[in-house]
Amino acid sequence: MDTAIVGQIEHDFLALPQVERQTIISYGAALRLADLRKRLFLAESKVRYFEDKYHTHLARLDTDGLPDDAGVELHEDYVMWHHWAAVADQVRNDIAALQGVVFRGLYMGDLARVGY
């Protein structure tokens, strides 16, 4: 986004009363947290799928290595398994960072308006 536009948006936002700025941030953070939780559910579901399919955990494969007779499918799944495990870890970190904003900003009546 153009820096002039970003500057104008920041100016407009900061011109709002503090209560409105806090409300906007709290509500936006709550919506983002809901999206992150959905993403985490997807990532953890993918990781569980691979664990069930291969009857092991990724950490075990990383330690022991792939079997000598591993086919192309296992190699491809191994790459995707790592991807989804990394996504899950990152999203957990993002959720932890954002939860403080949401729960500090949404209390004493604000929770009911957002649907928590």
Key traits:
mainly alpha, elongated, 116 residues
Describe this structure in words.
Mean pLDDT is 88; it is low at 108-112. The protein has helices spanning 3-15, 18-54, 58-64, 72-105, 110-114. 83% of the residues lie in helices and 0% in strands. The two termini are 33 Å apart. The longest helix has 37 residues, at 18-54. It is elongated. α2 runs antiparallel to α4 (72-105). The chain contains five helices and no strands. With 116 residues, it is mainly α.
- Spans with pLDDT under 50 lasting ≥5 residues? 108-112
First-to-last CA distance: 33 Å
Instruction: Report the count of strand segments.
Output: 0
Number of helices: 5
Order of helices and strands: HHHHH
| SS-derived structural category | mainly alpha
Average pLDDT rating: 88
What is the percentage of strand-forming residues?
Answer: under 5%
Helix percent band:
over 70%
Shape: elongated
Biggest sheet statistics: none
Task: Write a compact overview of the structure shown.
The chain has 116 residues and is mostly helical. The protein has helices at residues 3-15, 18-54, 58-64, 72-105, 110-114.
Helices, strands, pairings?
Layout: H1 3-15, H2 18-54, H3 58-64, H4 72-105, H5 110-114
Helix pairs in contact: 2-4
